[in-house]
UniProtKB/TrEMBL annotation:
One Gene Ontology term from the biological process aspect of the record: glutathione metabolic process
Record domain GST N-terminal: where: 6-85
Name by which UniProt lists this protein: glutathione transferase
GO molecular function ontology, one term from the record: glutathione transferase activity
Keyword list, A-Z: Transferase
CDD domains, per database record: GST_C_Tau (cd03185), GST_N_Tau (cd03058)
Catalysis: reaction(s): RX + glutathione = an S-substituted glutathione + a halide anion + H(+)
Family, as annotated: Belongs to the GST superfamily.
EC number assigned by the record: 2.5.1.18
Amino acid sequence: MEESQETVKLIGVKNSPFCCRVECALKLKGVKFEYITEDLSNKSDLLLQHNPVHKKIPVLVHGGKAVVESMIILEYIEETWPEVNPLLPADLHGRSVARFWIKFIEDKFLCIWQAFRTEGEQQAKAITDSLEMLKTIEEHAMTGKTFFNRDKIGLTDLAFGILVYWSGVIEEVIKVKILDAQTFPRITSWKQRFMEVSEIKDCLPNYDELVTFFKLRRETVLAAAASS
Ligand SMILES: N[C@@H](CCC(=O)N[C@@H](CS)C(=O)NCC(=O)O)C(=O)O
């Protein structure tokens, strides 16, 4: 049977920040969707068929057509349902600024994951890089508005905020404080405002469960690195 033009499905897992970004965007737009939980240890034909290149989640399936890569999915959601809760500014310059910071976050935020995957000198370097990345955001992106460069939540907040939530988990797992409130007061108060948004609160997975999951994950990753 052919899919309705309107059917929206999200293939994902709840412990992935990239899937959480998409879930939050759909909730903010009030779009109804079906969440299809993927088994990453035994990838489904549905995932392989819809994302044959990277074989990764999240995948958004809209009217039977797949959209992949979380930030591309978020732009797609914004362009498909522009009227409700616009997630980009109306003016072109404002949009370019939002996209600049999204690119910055996509390029640089991985250093926090690097701190999760490593130990010793490599980890120390990843932490230094993470602090540098946060300092740039603290000084140049937090402009005194409620959210990133505007008073309404938008795509940049989703790009950064969900990763910040997960990085809190990583900090706890590796027992290193990176996003310290005294060093980064603007990011810290922005984070509080971001977490207060009801659609965001609804989507964030339980913190303690994430910590348990990522503790085990780190043991696996380090054991694999040690034996290679
Ligand atoms: N750049 C991608 C990253 C997606 C990603 O890394 N997904 C992970 C889960 S968090 C995945 O599917 N991993 C499975 C694999 O690498 O085989 C995005 O933003 O969507």
